[in-house]
Design a protein that fits this description.
It is a single chain. This protein has 4 helices and 5 strands, in the order E-E-H-E-H-E-H-E-H. By secondary structure, it is α/β, with parallel strands linked by helices. The radius of gyration is 13 Å and the shape is globular.
């Protein structure tokens, strides 16, 4: 997994550049957080929805909750970019809406949207 770093208003954010489904489990997410924070002091990471396993979006698996819990535990921001406008699952729509309200984990259509919310 390759990370590209951006400094925005004095804060460092890492953007994951990698193949689809390169984050498979909670340990992968934890490794990503540790790498971004340790090597460059990033306070957040931006990933595309394609980097996540399909099970992430099935809330019954608990994977999304585990990933978000790691971000919360380490006080690390996470933005997931993608098109979430046509999500069919009501529970997933609610999950996305609630996550976006807290601001620690954001589901956004583009990187600029996440950065705006983080730096306000």
């Amino acid at each position: 997994m390759e990370l590209e770093y951006h400094t925005i208003d004095g804060s460092i954010y890492a953007e994951l550049k990698g193949p689809a489904h390169c984050i498979q489990d909670t340990q992968d997410m934890l490794d990503l957080i540790a790498t971004a924070n340790y090597y460059r002091g990033a306070s957040g990471i931006i990933i595309n929805e394609t980097h996540l396993p399909v099970d992430f979006f099935d809330l019954r698996t608990g994977l999304a909750g585990e990933f978000l819990q790691k971000c919360s535990n380490y006080r690390f921001n996470l933005a997931i970019t993608g098109d979430f406008s046509n999500v069919k699952s009501r529970s997933l729509r609610d999950f996305i809406r609630e996550s976006n309200q807290t601001g620690r984990v954001l589901f956004v259509s583009e990187i600029r949207e996440a950065v705006k919310k983080w730096v306000r």
